[in-house]
Recover the amino acids of this structure.
């Protein structure tokens, strides 16, 4: 399977990359690692006139350790995060998520920003970063803007990014020492696309009890105040984990899908919730 | 068409490539380096795995034009590599291949496991191999070969 012909540019700066996208008038794709775009080009699901390779733009590879957050450049690879080559705001949460993305050869090339911008609902970062309360930092012709990752995806393979905007970085708030994290995904085989995914963050020192249901047919579903269910499950309350309670919460949050899909989301969510229980 | 300069198996290479040509095709067609096998050409099977700047990548979903300035190594360039030499003998000893189609990519991933995760247990080895499809062996021989090389290297590390 070979890609259809395309032009290729590798701009040295973010400004130049945005100019190229603007001039292409929607007929360009950004390559930030190419581990999803490559297959799409080869299968000819994507046939852009121009591919703009942003992987050598220095500011997209930068990380910054701030007082209450870590900023991770869009072109930092999953393997960089897995191996701890970048600062971690999340006490091991992000390296753990990174390690289970696809396969090592893909993680060596695939990037956190590329994955998010690709907006595949079954990918790990849209769900994990939404649950962590991260922000997407976006650069475009009109300047810069920030969007919570929870609001970044607008649907399957659709995001709030305009055709001439580039995801520059993600800003991940630091977890407090008492924070607990639960994450579970259902894959038919390690590394395959997830059929269900759930993330739960309990961080009482920052007042956070957030749950996200991913790998849906559309954008991840964020339950911003999962207080009742999360607190009861922290307290060891078996009722919080009951099938009935979780099903009621997922249905209340608008989880659709057929009975199989609903079932595996339910299982995945209960397993994620169980991980934050006191031990 | 775009000009590129890169290093392949330690030798400098200059070429003019079509942007749509992936690295696997570039290696096989321009340089006649046919140890790299192309299976699915959509990043799933792992047969085309090569080293780019020292780490395994799938050459079918990396375009040659994007490898300008990179250091690429194929199985041909690892003939004298110590780990690959050990793996070659172990794969043969443990019947880690039958048709051989997946083997070049399998060797790249096996080398990565042995060097990056010297203490990986069987479960982890199998997890790490999940991105390389083998339809002959059922993986038993491949896992045994990797574990064998891990043990050889461990006992040597431990020797006075």
């Amino acid at each position: 399977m070979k890609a259809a012909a395309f032009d290729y540019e590798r701009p040295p700066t973010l400004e130049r990359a945005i100019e190229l996208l603007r001039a292409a008038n929607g007929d360009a794709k950004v390559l930030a690692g190419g581990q999803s775009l490559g297959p799409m080009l080869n299968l000819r699901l994507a046939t852009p006139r121009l591919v703009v390779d942003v992987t050598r733009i220095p500011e997209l590879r930068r990380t910054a350790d701030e007082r209450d957050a870590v900023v991770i450049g869009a072109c930092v690879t999953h393997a960089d995060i897995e191996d701890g080559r970048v600062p971690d705001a999340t006490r091991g949460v992000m390296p753990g998520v990174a390690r289970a993305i696809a396969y090592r050869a893909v993680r060596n090339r695939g990037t956190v920003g590329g994955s998010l911008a690709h907006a595949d609902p079954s990918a790990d970062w849209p769900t994990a970063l939404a649950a962590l309360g991260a922000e997407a930092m976006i650069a475009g012709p009109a300047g810069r803007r920030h969007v919570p990752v929870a609001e970044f995806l607008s649907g399957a393979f659709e995001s709030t990014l305009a055709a001439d905007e580039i995801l520059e970085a993600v800003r991940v708030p630091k977890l407090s020492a008492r924070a607990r994290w639960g994450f579970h995904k259902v894959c038919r085989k390690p590394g395959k696309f997830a059929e269900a995914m759930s993330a739960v963050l309990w961080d009482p020192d920052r007042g956070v009890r957030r749950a996200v249901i991913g790998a849906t047919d559309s954008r991840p579903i964020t339950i911003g105040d999962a207080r009742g269910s999360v607190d009861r499950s922290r307290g060891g309350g078996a009722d919080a984990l009951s099938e009935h309670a979780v099903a009621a919460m997922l249905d209340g949050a608008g989880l659709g899908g057929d009975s199989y899909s609903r079932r595996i989301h339910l299982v995945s969510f209960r397993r994620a919730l169980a991980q934050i229980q006191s031990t | 068409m775009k000009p590129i300069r890169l290093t392949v198996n330690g030798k400098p290479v200059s070429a003019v490539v079509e942007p749509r040509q992936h690295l696997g095709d570039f290696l096989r067609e321009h340089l006649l380096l046919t140890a790299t096998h192309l299976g699915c050409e959509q990043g799933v099977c792992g047969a085309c795995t090569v080293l780019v700047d020292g780490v395994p990548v799938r050459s079918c979903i990396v375009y040659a034009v994007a490898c300008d300035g990179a250091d690429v190594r194929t199985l041909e360039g690892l003939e004298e590599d110590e780990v690959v030499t050990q793996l070659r003998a172990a794969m043969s000893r443990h019947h880690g291949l039958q048709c051989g189609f997946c083997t070049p990519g399998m060797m790249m991933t096996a080398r990565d496991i042995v060097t990056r995760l010297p203490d990986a247990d069987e479960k982890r080895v199998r997890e790490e191999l999940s991105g390389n499809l083998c339809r002959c062996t059922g993986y038993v021989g491949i896992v045994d070969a990797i574990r064998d090389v891990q043990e050889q290297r461990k006992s040597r590390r431990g020797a006075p």
About this structure: The CA atoms of residues 49 and 58 of chain B lie 4 Å apart. Chain B has two domains: 2-77, 82-154.
